[in-house]
Description:
Elements: E1 6-10, E2 15-24, E3 30-36, E4 44-48, E5 52-61, E6 67-69, E7 72-75, E8 82-88, E9 91-95, E10 101-102, E11 111-115
Antiparallel strand pairs: 1-2, 1-5, 2-3, 3-4, 5-6, 7-8, 7-11, 8-9, 9-10
Amino acid sequence: MKVIKLKAWDKLNNQMLEVLQICFDDRGLPYLKVGIVGRIGTNQYNLKMEDIELMQFIEAEDKNKKDIYSGYILRTNEAGWIGEVVFDYGQFYLRDNRGGFSYQPDWDLCEIIGNIWKNGDLL
């Protein structure tokens, strides 16, 4: 069974958020009910879709057993090559900003080193 988990990058406050719920307002426009990653309690609030970058779990873990999401930057076991996790052409893969890509990386041998919004300079 496919596991669907989402995170959101808050473009207004430059922080990673847990997606708690996808909702719709009275006009049928979507928004997210979110919470700050790692905190439990009353830290929930709503954000418009245009204020976030939605990130999808790719159903894989890195070598440290951390969940991998689209938008993450990974260091691979392929001579330390670094790439961004993207979804395109019906699959998740890694690409760098010089045209390089890996369609079948060994996800469990990679290491998460950041995300494209906070650590884009790593690419």
